[in-house]
Amino acid sequence: MNTKKLIALEALAAGKDVSKASELANISRPTLYKYLADPGFKQELDRKQSELIQRLSLRLLGICDLALTALEAGLQDRAITTRLRAAAIAISKLQSISELGVLEQRIAGLEARARVNK
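User: That's the sequence. What structure does it adopt?
Assistant: Structure tokens below.
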């Protein structure tokens, strides 16, 4: 892969849009769209984006304990507005986690059916 492709790949993987990525790689937007049409380039972009998401997820997991401690402290705060805000955050996150659990179960069911149908 040439240098311009690598620069474009890294920029896209980091979340830059096509205009910015093509500017950083010093290529035209149509050229970048040609790169994106290449299955190998697209596969590498997907791999890099997945890798980035994994790294960010690990960092978030690392700070979750601190965040929960802060949330617990908010629930113990003297000010009612702080306690209510902390409670609202806790409830909304519980709902999000619950929804993820349901989605995971549905995906597992679909994957099991797909294996049976092969």
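The chain has two domains: 1-63, 77-118.
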